[in-house]
Design goal:
By secondary structure, the chain is of the alpha+beta class. About 35% of the residues lie in helices and about 30% in strands. The strands form 3 sheets. The protein has a 4-stranded mixed beta sheet. A 3-stranded antiparallel beta sheet has the order 1-9-10, covered by helices on one side. α3 runs parallel beside α4. It starts with a helix and ends with a helix.
Length: about 260
């Protein structure tokens, strides 16, 4: 990260410019900063008020749309967008067919809150896992309705279809109608309705958890008479791992730089 940031900044040329301008009275400085940050901490029982477990509920409504319920709340970082994107990807839905409800203690499952860079890591995993549990139920229901084997089915465009047979399918709305209103047609061993709640505890990040890292280079000039600072160049390189939404990641990085 540091090597890439220095290459982007043209570090040697910047240092030469700094030396060249020193005699003319220009005060140019180069700031370099690297960071390594663990996320989604799971602290020991002695600090249970900072536990790292999280939960989420995913439900297929009778119109075929999906509802995601989480006790997390957004701090302006696009959490609702990220969670709806995860659910849409997992269930084969459009993002506009996913509704995300956050932080309502009357209806959403328990949450340990928004802190420690944990919402995407823990809340996102919960939504993903709950969606996969819901997907299993959809496929089991669809297998019964389509007289097909579960292994031959796939989720696509708000429905379940037999692979390679686009005309042999059943929509989520049709499955939900049976699941909620026709219990006699629900396969044996399957509960009526289509909703699942997932609970997830991340690993101890202080030994093996998700870690973010970055390198930043700032080139600034300070007017020695007025004290006015001008940012001449700024470069940032981040190791983000798998990005749910690159635009949100870029916005968070730019927002952090501006705040700094």
């Amino acid at each position: 990260l540091l090597r890439k940031a220095l290459r982007m900044a043209g570090y040697e040329a910047v240092r030469e410019m700094q030396r060249r301008n020193l005699g003319s009275g220009r005060r140019v400085g180069v700031g370099i900063s690297c960071n390594v940050e663990s996320t989604a901490p799971m602290l020991p029982p002695s600090q249970a008020e900072w536990a790292g477990n999280e939960s989420a509920t995913v439900k297929i409504e009778q119109d075929g749309s999906a509802s995601v319920l989480t006790g997390l709340v957004s701090l302006g970082t696009g959490l609702e967008t990220a969670l709806s994107q995860i659910a849409a990807d997992e269930l084969g839905l459009r993002m506009e067919d996913v509704t995300v409800s956050t932080g309502d203690t009357a209806s959403t499952p328990f949450s340990n809150g928004v802190w420690g860079s944990r919402s995407g890591v823990t809340g996102g995993v919960c939504v993903m896992m709950a969606c996969r549990m819901v997907r299993d139920r959809l496929i089991k229901m669809a297998a019964s309705l389509l007289a097909a084997g579960p292994e031959d089915l796939e989720l696509r465009d708000g429905g379940v279809r037999v692979k390679g047979e686009s005309r042999r399918d059943v929509t989520f709305a049709e499955i939900a109608h049976v699941a909620y209103n026709e219990p006699s047609r629900v396969p044996a061993g399957t509960q009526p309705g289509i909703h699942e709640t997932c609970y997830y505890s991340p690993p101890d990040v202080f030994s093996a958890g998700p870690v973010g890292s970055a390198a930043h280079v700032a080139v600034v000039e300070v007017d020695s008479e007025t004290g006015v600072v001008e940012v001449l160049k700024y470069f940032a390189v981040h190791d983000d791992g798998t990005m749910i939404n690159p635009s949100i990641v870029e916005g968070q990085i730019l927002g952090g730089i501006v705040q700094g």
